[in-house]
Structure formats: C-alpha cells, structure tokens
Amino acid sequence: MHTRVAFVETPAERFERLKDYPFAPHYQEVDPAGLRMHYVDEGPRGAPPILMLHGEPSWSYLYRSMIPVCAAAGQRVVAPDLVGFGRSSKPLAVSDYTYQRHCDWVCALIEGLDLREITLVCQDWGSLIGLRLAAELEPRFARIVVGNGFLPSGTPPSGSRLRSFGNVAAFLAWRTFARWSPFFRISSILQAGTARTLDAEELRAYDAPFPEERHKAGARAFPRLVPLSPQDPAVPANRRAWEVLERWEKPFLTAFSDGDPITRGLDRSLQERIPGARGLPHRRLRGGHFLQEDSGPELAQATLELIARTGGAPA
After folding, report:
1. 289 carries an active-site annotation
2. Residue 292 and residue 180: Cα distance in Å, rounded?
3. What distance in Å separates the CA atoms of residue 27 and residue 105, rounded to the nearest whole number?
4. C-alpha distances in Å from residue 182, one per residue of 178, 179, 185, 220
5. N or C, which terminus of the chain has less Cβ within 10 Å?
6. Which of 31, 41, 81, 124 is catalytic?
7. Chain segment 220-241, per-residue pLDDT in tens
8. How far is Cα 297 from Cα 270, in angstroms, rounded to an integer?
9. Catalytic pick from 31, 81, 96, 260?
10. Domains and CATH numbers, the chain
C-alpha cells in the first residue's frame, strides 16, 4: 500500500474555457493515499470502451480531436490523465513516481470502472503502461492500437534506432534535462514534438495542469523510469508481459507517424513479434512524436475501422 504521499491538486479554474476541450470531469480514487485519477468519459456508457492513454508530458487534452469522433460513432471513450498530469493528483516528490506505481494506478482505474472489451489506444508512456497492463489484464482487452510507442524490456529491440549511439545519447540528455533543468515549460516540449504550430490557446492548455514547479514532479520523473538496462526493476514484469504479447492473437494495429526519429522502426518490430498484427492495414500518419496533434482524426478513424473490421460496433 502506498501511503503518506504528499500531493497537490491543480486548481479547477486552470481548466476553464480550454480550447476544444468541453468534456465533463470524472474522478476515480486509485491509491490508499487518496490520489485521484481524472478521466474523460464520453459516448454511450453501455458500449465497449476505447481507452486512450497519453504519455510524457501531456494529458487527456492530447486526445481532444479524437474523443468526439469516436463518441459520435457510438463508442464509449475513456481518456484518463495519468497521476501527476492533467487534472489528476500530483505527488510532490519525484521519488513518489515509479513504473510500477503508474501501472498500479491505471490498473485501479480499469478495475474501478470495470472496463471490459477494451480497445487500447496508446502512445509514448501510454504504451509503456498500456501494453504492460494489456498483458497483465489480458481478458479485459479486445484489441490494441499503438502510435509512436513500445514496451521496452532492458535491451533495444532489433532494428530500433535506439541502437545507435546518437539516439541513446539524445535520450540520456533529455532525461538529464527533464530531471534538472530549471527551465521546464511543458507547452514548449509539446511544441517541439509536434509538426504543426500550436496556437496560444493550445499552449495554454498544455501548461494549465502545472501552475507551479512543484506540480511538475511527475513530468520530470518519467524519462528516468524508462527501463534501458537489464538491471532496471521494471524489466522482469515487462519481459513477462512480452511473453503474453508474443502469443497475442487479438487485433494489434500500429499507426506510427512519419516524423518521430526516436520511435522510427519500432512499429516494424511490433508487427514482427505480435501475432495479432499480421494481415492488418498498419498506418503511417503525418506528424511528429505527438501524432495526435498532427493526425488525430486520422488516428481516430483508423481505430474505428479496426473495431469494425474485427467484430466491434460499425465505424
């Protein structure tokens, strides 16, 4: 049990009148310490859910162009803010964030809402958490869509650009910057990973959850939690997850962007290793690391087409 965690909540007024984000807030307690996870819940409650998991350092705002498309097609959409992000509770110490705790928190949301027949849509850290939980809670998941994400297990996958020294060095530099740089503006990071230019209101929305430096511990923690070595404490659980994924026969679609150098090539590795990826119309979408910003409606449509193709509701 995770107790005695000091945390803060971002004031509600920070989220008023955000551009293209009219969604009512919902909360689920996910930790004995009282931490709450915020989530968007749109569309018919009786429909099988599409679970949209964001990554670093965004929040459910990233999915704002996809949520209405999927809900209008008759799908229920659940888009949470990971703990430390968005409208969710924010532990104050970087050490309060671990890979296992993030998985536990999202697991508590899934089980608390009793989500079943889940279509997972995940990117960046949403993939690190989502793919692990899809393996650990396999009966609850019906299909998976991954964009610009992977499940690392301590060694770079075959064919990955992360095998090159330059990209490893770049990631390590980013990890150091995230932990120690006195300038860590969230909206600037989102803009750097997006091909199109975000307008002032969109930038304001990405900064909204973080009114003070103390709110950013979760965002600063994430890069150092990526398991890069076999000695990382997350590696055994991720390798067990891969044992499930390498037998995964359910639909598994990749929809990566054409402008993310770090994850380039990882879609091919997923397609080769996961049986459920065979024969599906994998996509290459326009955009940077945050492909939801550059090709959100296209990613939503790919998700709906996969659901229709594989026995779900019509798109």
Report:
1. yes
2. 28
3. 12
4. 9, 9, 9, 11
5. N
6. 124
7. 999 999 998 899 999 999 999 9
8. 23
9. 260
10. 7-309 (3.40.50.1820)
